[in-house]
Amino acid sequence: SYGWLLIKTLWVAPAQRGTGLGRRLMLCAEDEGRALGCHSAWLDTSNPAALGFYLALGYTEFSRLENPPGAAPETHTRWFLRKTLAPRTP
After folding, report:
1. Model pTM greater than 0.70?
2. Distance between CA atoms of 84 and 16, rounded to whole angstroms?
3. Which of 7, 8, 52, 67 is the most core-located residue (most Cβ within 10 A)?
4. Cβ 63 vs Cβ 43: under 8 Å
5. Under 8 Å between Cβ of 79 and 46
6. Alpha-carbon span 6 to 77, nearest angstrom
7. DSSP-assigned letters across all residues of 16-68
8. How far is CA 34 from the centre of its chain?
């Protein structure tokens, strides 16, 4: 929508994590976005480990929602991330 690729869900089985599968899936999604004419991608996550994964792929945080003290779950945070889809080099 409006030139943005929305990545809604990415899940990799625990046994496959750390093998590069998640990275390959993300690169394929980004390539598909480029092919469709998208200039950027965005996603959100509430998983701190996933946040680190996306940051390592070049995504940057543009917003976050944090539950206030006393709200359940008290430590819940949702990060919103984006990345410019510049042409990939081989």
Report:
1. yes
2. 27
3. 7
4. no
5. yes
6. 19
7. GTTTTHHHHHHHHHHHHHHHTT-SEEEEEE--HHHHHHHHHTT-EEEEEEEPP
8. 16
Beta bridge partners of 45: 79
Cβ–Cβ < 8 Å for 77, 51: no
Q: Which two tokens stand for residue 29?
A: 């999604």
- Positive or negative, the CA dihedral 28, 45, 62, 58 is negative
Confidence band (pLDDT; 50, 70, 90) for 90? low
Amino acid at 65: L
Tell me the two tokens of residue 21: 């599968």
